[in-house]
Amino acid sequence: AGAETVKRAVQLDAASRFQESLVCYQEGIDLLLQVVKATTDEAKKHHYRQKISELTFLSDGKYHKQIRIEENATGFGYEKLFHEYLTETVSEVWVEDPYIRQVHQASRYSLYNFLRFCEMLVKGPCKVKTIHLLTSYDGGSGKSQQMSALEEIKQSLSNYGVTLNIDFSSSIHDREIRFNNGWTIKVGRGLDYFKHPRGHFSIGYCDFDLRPCRETTVDVFHTKHTKKM
């Protein structure tokens, strides 16, 4: 399986389909790492480690894609935006967003947005086991609601075998999402790039693909992802 995945990666690379090739390279590396752990033959271990080093070099962080989401554009639900990077090897996710706060702000449904993002991770095809959230405390009376909502999300995720680690920072500003397969997605507005729905029974309230967006920029990077061999 690893050999076929690597072969596919090389073919995609040659066809200048760099995004798809990087996904295949990473999957090939993960499959070969599993072989290294399983084999007791030192000569084979050495061979596979050399091959992994070569593949890591080929897939090493030289990819950058930018997506421009226009004002009122639709079709940018979380599944559509992130599905290409959520391969089966993803088991850990980092979310840094200072505004995972109240649900009652005029144009922000940030806590619900974070919940929706977590639902996407639970559905797969990735096998997420740990989600790390770094955000900032809500001010005043909103803090208790924020803490209560996040605790409820945490408990609900645990029913699906997923651990949510929550940390707070008073200086966090940037927004980004990282997957442990080497992909980093930076959304200018974080998870809150959707417009407020016109009503609780309006099209787009439940299906984010139909929800109009606010203008923002999405930057996708791939960074060198190394594991202990």
TrEMBL record:
Domain of life: Eukaryota
GO biological-process terms attached to the record: midbody abscission
Pfam families: MIT (PF04212), MIT_C (PF16565)
CDD domains documented for this protein: MIT_C (cd02685)
SUPFAM superfamilies in the record: MIT domain
The MIT domain, residue ranges: 2-55
Residue ranges constituting the MITD1 C-terminal phospholipase D-like domain according to the UniProt record: 75-222
InterPro entries: MIT_dom (IPR007330), MIT_dom_sf (IPR036181), MIT_domain_contain_protein1 (IPR052817), MITD1_C (IPR032341), MITD1_C_sf (IPR038113)
GO annotation, cellular component aspect: midbody
Record-given protein name: MITD1 protein
Species this chain originates from: Edolisoma coerulescens
